[in-house]
């Protein structure tokens, strides 16, 4: 592209304006979390608060119970991520490298259920969890989010493990290593790039999950995740805008921080997923 | 995507891609491969219980009158479907879901493609920064985004203040509280939130086009438009099918945004199928689990139609490719 200087400048300005509009809601949110309640709607477009009110944060953190929501979310997110990684790496390894009775059936089932929307299975999944006696428990939410689905993660691992030369395994087997040793000592460490991708995508999905945690904690407010707690908070006191904004900033900060730190891997794992 | 192995695990085994039947009997192979099944156990159990069973069970529940998880349902045949067929609120939610698909998906896919083409040009300044900023909403929690936007789109919120101040409107627009606008407002927020991920998909797709093609096109004197029309577009076609499908599935998973933005209101004007199912099953004083399952089954059939459409679409796209 031989772009003239002026057209470059024009495109750059246009994009800059678009991005400013794009992230304005976040800027507005952060500024709102530092304002007093009347100030938020009084001069809505002014992003700088008169004097930052840090007290909004302490109110959201302690009085509303966001500290426990945060803990619940962290527990559930990491439990789900660990479950999905272990499960899909184990299955992806044998699917990618071995031929066995029933393999075609398994892959067929994966492909048929690949795009199943969550809203479609929430009733049976709730009933199942109820049957196991796991409703209103962290484990119930973790299993609900991580035990089924995620065929994509399994197929990502399978695709990766297929590309590894087989001499590695052969020599390990000669040395008397069993399948579990080979998998955990050699194969899983090799698959680190895939693990990073799956970690990122799962972290995002679990941290932001709403429908399932909402249904599973309907009768147990102390088990709420951030997303569920936030909407409950709005239902209970819809006048404390500043406290709400502070709570929202607290809830969004961790996931935005993870994104900023792992930005490159984020983009690469998503791009890799679509190229598949 | 299909896993075909070329590595026979043991010397005694026939190669994986054998066309004939394996030499050893099935039960013996299964016994020798016991550890493979051990590796598959977590997936088979988890997937069986949490994905396959719900799929099958939904069909069964759809034939029950089932007033709560602690009760046992009674079989009532097709009565749920008959009631659904006559239920205006179900069709209302169905139409809303379709409108959502028809408007939001093309908007998201098209806008993202435009931006991707601009961001893919080497001459564009600050490409990485712009990409990051556009991607930021993707990582945020949908339910919380919805709540934040109830403030932003409020009559006294920044959007209306800007509109009134710039004299575009005389009085604040009620984005979420008027039945004519609520669904479109949700669509707007949804596109804003998810555009970034589609942008990444398109950028990945554009990366697959070799630069030589553009150079050749330019040698032949093709301008920007011709270059797009005869080089970029044909090569992006298979990606268009996949990306559209991914975004369509996304457009069926909008529960968090709809519930937090409008709750499906006012007067059910923004209630999509997913919210309808939730309301029938968990939001009512008497849960109608069988009825909600019947709605879910219809919703599922729709998804299958989409999946079949995808298969046909991809096949057609492949045929169109030389």
TrEMBL record, chain A:
Membrane topology: Multi-pass membrane protein
Organism of provenance: Kribbella amoyensis
Protein keywords: Cell membrane, Membrane, Transmembrane, Transmembrane helix, Transport
TM region(s), chain numbering: 9-30, 69-93, 105-126, 138-161, 182-207, 241-262
Magnesium listed as a keyword: no
Localization in the cell: Cell membrane
InterPro entries hit by this protein: MetI-like (IPR000515), MetI-like_sf (IPR035906)
Domain ABC transmembrane type-1: 70-262
Keyword Transmembrane: yes
SUPFAM superfamilies: MetI-like
Chief place of localization: membrane
Protein name: Raffinose/stachyose/melibiose transport system permease protein
GO annotation, cellular component aspect: plasma membrane
Similarity comment: family membership: Belongs to the binding-protein-dependent transport system permease family.
Highest taxon of the lineage: Bacteria
One Pfam family it belongs to: BPD_transp_1
GO process terms (BP): transmembrane transport
């Amino acid at each position: 592209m031989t772009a003239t200087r002026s057209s470059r400048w024009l495109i750059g300005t246009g994009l800059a304006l678009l991005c400013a509009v794009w992230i304005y809601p976040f800027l507005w949110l952060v500024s709102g979390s530092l304002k007093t309640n009347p100030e938020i709607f009084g001069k809505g477009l002014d992003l700088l608060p008169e004097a930052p009110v840090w007290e909004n944060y302490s109110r959201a953190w302690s009085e509303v119970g966001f500290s426990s929501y945060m803990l619940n979310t962290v527990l559930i997110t990491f439990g789900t991520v660990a479950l999905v990684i272990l499960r899909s790496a184990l299955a992806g390894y044998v699917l990618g490298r071995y031929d066995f009775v029933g393999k075609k059936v398994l892959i067929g089932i994966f492909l048929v259920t690949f795009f199943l929307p969550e809203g479609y299975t929430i009733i049976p999944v709730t009933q199942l969890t109820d049957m196991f006696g796991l409703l209103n428990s962290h484990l119930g939410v973790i299993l609900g989010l991580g035990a089924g689905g995620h065929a994509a993660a399994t197929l990502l691992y399978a695709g990766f493990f297929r590309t590894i030369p087989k001499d590695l395994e052969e020599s390990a087997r000669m040395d008397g290593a069993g399948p579990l040793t080979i998998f955990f000592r050699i194969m899983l460490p090799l698959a680190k790039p895939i693990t990073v991708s799956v970690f990122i995508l799962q972290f995002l999905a679990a941290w932001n999950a709403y429908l399932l945690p909402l249904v599973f904690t309907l009768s147990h407010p102390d088990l709420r995740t951030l997303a569920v707690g936030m909407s409950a908070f709005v239902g209970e006191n819809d006048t404390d805008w500043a406290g709400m904004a502070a709570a929202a900033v607290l809830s969004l900060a961790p996931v935005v921080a993870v994104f900023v730190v792992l930005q490159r891997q984020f983009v690469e794992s998503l791009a890799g997923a679509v190229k598949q | 995507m299909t896993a075909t192995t070329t590595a026979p695990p043991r010397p005694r085994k026939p190669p994986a891609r054998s066309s004939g039947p394996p030499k050893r009997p099935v039960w013996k192979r299964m016994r020798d491969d016991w550890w493979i099944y051990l590796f598959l156990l977590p997936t088979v159990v988890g997937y069986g219980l949490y994905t396959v069973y719900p799929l099958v069970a939904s069909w069964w529940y759809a034939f029950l009158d089932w007033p709560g998880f602690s009760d046992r349902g009674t079989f009532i045949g097709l009565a749920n479907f008959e009631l659904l067929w006559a239920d205006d609120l179900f069709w209302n939610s169905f139409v809303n879901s379709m409108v959502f698909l028809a408007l939001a998906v093309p908007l998201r896919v098209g806008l993202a493609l435009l931006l991707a083409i601009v961001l893919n040009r080497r001459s564009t300044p600050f490409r990485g920064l712009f990409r990051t900023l556009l991607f930021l909403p993707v990582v945020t929690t949908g339910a919380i985004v919805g709540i934040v936007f109830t403030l932003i789109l409020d009559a006294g919120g920044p959007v209306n203040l800007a509109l009134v101040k710039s004299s575009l409107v005389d009085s604040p627009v009620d984005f979420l509280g008027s039945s004519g606008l609520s669904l479109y407002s949700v669509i707007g927020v949804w596109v804003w939130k998810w555009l970034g991920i589609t942008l990444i998909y398109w950028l990945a797709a554009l990366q697959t086009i070799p630069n030589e093609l553009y150079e050749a096109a330019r040698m032949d004197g093709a301008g920007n438009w011709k270059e797009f029309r005869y080089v970029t577009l044909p090569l992006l076609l298979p990606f268009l099918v996949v990306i559209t499908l991914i975004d369509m599935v996304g457009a069926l998973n909008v529960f968090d945004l709809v519930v937090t933005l409008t709750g499906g209101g006012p007067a059910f004007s923004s209630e999509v199928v997913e919210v309808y199912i939730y309301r029938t099953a968990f939001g009512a004083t008497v849960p109608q689990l069988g009825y909600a399952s019947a709605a879910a089954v219809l919703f599922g059939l729709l998804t299958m139609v989409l999946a079949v459409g995808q298969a046909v679409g991809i096949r057609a796209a492949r045929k169109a490719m030389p």
